[in-house]
Amino acid sequence: MQRSIPIYDRVFRHAFDSPETAAELADNLLPSRYRRRIAGAAVSVSAESFVESDLRGRFTDLLIEFRMQAEPRATVVSGGGRGRRRSRGGDDHALYLYVLVDHKSQPERWVSFQLLRYIVSVWQRLLRDNERLRRLPEIVPVVLYHGSSTWHYPLQFSELVEGVSGGVQHIPRFEPLFVDVGAMEADALHGGIRTVVALLVLKYLSRRIDEQAAAVLLDAMHREALTPQLQAFYEPLYTALLEAKEEEEIDLLLAQARRRRYSDSEEALMTYGEQLRTEGRQEGRAQGRQQGREEGREEGRLREKREVLVRLLSRRFAVSAADQRLIEASDDAGLLDEALDEVVVAESKEAVLAKLRR
Question: Is the whole-model pTM more than 0.85?
Answer without folding.
Answer: no
